[in-house]
Design a protein that fits this description.
Pfam families: Alpha-E (PF04168). By secondary structure, this protein is mostly helical. It has one domain (1-305). 71% of the residues lie in helices and 0% in strands. It starts with a helix and ends in an 11-residue tail after the last helix.
């Protein structure tokens, strides 16, 4: 397979996943702000931190107001990680590989991008934002499901699967890192505010219902960390995502270095005693995971993409 094609498929998956993730964290944060007592709300700045966009945001906006952050994350084309930018990048990538993916993929991505663009005013409106974001999430999930259900599970599909799961893995640990920073790590009883925060972590990853079903305990720090970092069952759990990447990587040639990195990441995650990690230790642990993911993505890029790099991508 041409490296250009592999690159485009990989980034197509990442951008569709990124658009869905951004829509969900905005939706969940809006609900959390409403549910949190005055003076205790985390506000909107954490979303900028989750998306690793602090420098770019601060260059263009003077305050962390709801309107500014929502505009930046939904419709600012100067932000390569905004929903509108992500869908544009996805559209441009799929346009160059229309013979590789099912025909309906191009139509669905084009329709979703057009919806996001023409209805942007609704996304910025408090009253209409929920329906707008819900449509984005549903559209992204439809595209993901369509590709899984109608595309040949060949080499191209494995690059798609790798891209999707790396994007998910990164988002999961970023949400945990940022949201847990404001919480006290060792309380037998959660305050209502802390309970809302941990529930928001789960809901930001569409994991609340599946957490209750799998863990069968009340929402609390140790169980949430175990669920989101170490379980194989939940599709957005970090360990699950790494296993999915590993399974697809085994189908690709010249994979020794990447498989070694993946094996080390899996061992690190499973050996961690998460219940004993205080906040600073958890932050360091997640930083180490992020560095390992960065090393992995560099290896993938150097091995499979550098010969014919695609111009339609944005790192981060």
């Amino acid at each position: 397979m041409l490296s250009r094609v592999a690159d485009s498929i990989y980034w197509l998956a990442r951008y569709i996943e990124r658009a869905e993730n951004s829509a969900r964290i905005v939706m969940v944060n809006a609900n959390m702000v409403l549910d949190t007592p005055k003076g205790m709300s985390p506000g909107w700045r954490p979303l900028i931190t989750i998306t690793s966009s602090e420098e770019l945001y601060d260059q263009n906006y003077s305050e962390d107001s709801e309107r500014n952050v929502v505009k930046f994350l939904i419709g600012d084309m100067n932000n390569p990680g905004s929903i509108l930018s992500s869908l544009w990048f996805a559209r441009e990538n799929v346009r160059t590989i229309r013979d590789v993916v099912p025909r309906e993929t191009w139509e669905s991505i084009n329709d979703l991008h057009l919806y996001a663009k023409t209805n942007l005013r609704n996304g910025l409106s408090q009253r209409a934002r929920y329906d707008y974001l819900k449509h984005i999430i549903a559209g992204a999930q439809q595209i993901t499901g369509m590709l899984a259900g109608t595309m040949n599970h060949d080499t191209a599909y494995h690059f798609l699967r790798i891209g999707r799961n790396l994007e998910r893995a990164e988002m999961t640990i970023r949400i945990i890192d940022v949201r847990s920073a404001s919480l006290l790590p060792h309380k037998a009883e959660l305050t209502p505010f802390e309970n809302i925060q941990w529930m928001s972590v789960l809901k930001s990853l569409s994991g609340y219902q599946m957490y209750r079903r799998l863990m069968q305990v009340r929402v609390g720090r140790p169980a949430v960390l175990k669920f989101l970092l170490q379980t194989r069952e939940f599709p957005r759990a970090f360990f699950h995502c790494i296993c999915e990447v590993e399974e697809s990587m085994r189908r690709l040639p010249h994979n020794n270095k990447t498989l070694a990195i993946l094996a080390a990441i899996k061992e690190t995650v499973l050996k961690a005693d998460l219940a004993q990690l205080e906040q600073q230790a958890l932050h360091i642990f997640i930083d180490d995971l992020e560095l390992a993911l960065a090393d992995l993505t560099t290896q993938i890029n150097n091995r499979y993409f550098v010969a014919e790099p695609s111009p339609i991508k944005q790192s981060g």
